[in-house]
Prior knowledge:
alpha+beta; FAD/NAD(P)-binding domain; 2 domains; 5-stranded parallel beta sheet; 13 helices; 22 strands; binds flavin-adenine dinucleotide
Amino acid sequence: MEKGNDKTRIICIGAGASGLFFALNCADEGHEVILLDSNQKVGRKMYISGKGRCNITNDCDTREFIKNIVRNPKFMYSAINRFKPEDTIAFFNEHGCPLKTERGNRVFPVSDKSADIIDCLFRECKKAGVKIRFGKTVKDIEKKDDRFVVKCEDETLVCDKLVIATGGKSYASTGSTGDGYRFAEKFGHEISELKSALCPIKVKQIIDRDMYKLTLKNVTLSAKNESFDKKIFGDLEFLPGSLTGPIALSLSSLINRVGNVSLSLDLKPALDEQTLDKRILREIEKDPNKNVSVLLDALLPKSFQAFFVKYARIDTKTPLHSFSRTKRMELIHALKAFPFTYDGLEDIDKGIVTSGGVNVSEIDPKSFESKLCKGLYFIGEVLDVDAFTGGFNLQCALSSGYSCALEMKKAL
Ligand SMILES: Cc1cc2nc3c(=O)[nH]c(=O)nc-3n(C[C@H](O)[C@H](O)[C@H](O)COP(=O)(O)OP(=O)(O)OC[C@H]3O[C@@H](n4cnc5c(N)ncnc54)[C@H](O)[C@@H]3O)c2cc1C
């Protein structure tokens, strides 16, 4: 068993966003920081984040940021306030990875390459003296006297402080297989039920192949039942058998503990029914001898029309001059509240994040130390914290890693 030198030894399991940022901020000549990861490279999940562009943060203030955290926003307040989105932007700009801000305050590397974010974190870890050990899958951990025993497949290490930064359970092929929950349970921690979040919403309707490349811009998707009513405005996309894109992903995080819901899509949220009717009448007056398909051309993208007509039962061959008021009202209703039949959420593995995790009431919100076991820490997605898309999840990972590092250094 490797015991290390006389220096305080800190081991962090997981070299993802939270582990890397913890390590580079904690490393110091006075103590040893070791990062263990089962992969042969750091930041595998970050590599695929933001469709390969890595939406690293959201350039908004703390109040706005907290509103975008779905589970346990108050718990994250202190860490976000301590390491804000503006600090993330300054960090990468100052360390050779310039960033840019896009629509919705989403922040990306100027190069549009997630690899540049990862390289920057890796470089800074190396500069700070962090020892990174690849291909080290931690199988088990235990506490003996005041130290932790970390068992990998081929070796056992001991340390004085142990940080669990193993991520959630989604996209397990990136390395986040949910081991952190098992480690937490071993030390008596409660794991709030794990659910898919930021994942496609399955629907019973058959999605036409033509729609896979379609983005419906500026629409509103709502989910309702007797005790729940939420709507989200933005862009919607489609997959075989499911709704995706920013608004479906965000809505999935809100309905993952709600049970059955009715889904409906407002294709014209900027227009109330009366205004929409006036618009339709104007279109009809332009050329009353044309049929309803011409009217649909003015109202909907081509690749959505066949699907819309099929499920809204609209006869496109009807000439506009005989398109009755009743028919117009039916069309308006379908445009304002197009129903999708909810068929559950995709599996946890297909979620961008995992909802649920280590119960935050058992964790100190500044140091991220376990209240049940001294010297044991949890950062990043392994915690019961998840946020909407837009760079909020990676910022939570960075802020928790940073705050943990600072408090730990103070206490050494
Ligand atoms: C497709 C996709 C796109 C995303 N896009 C964005 C985005 O653009 N913006 C955003 O804010 N968020 C995004 N996210 C979410 C974000 O990437 C995660 O929330 C974030 O990476 C979590 O960081 P983490 O450090 O907690 O965990 P991870 O980054 O998952 O890192 C955990 C690490 O722990 C290691 N590990 C796990 N178990 C063990 C073990 N037993 N032994 C050794 N090592 C272990 C894993 O190999 C892994 O490297 C995206 C997620 C996905 C899946």
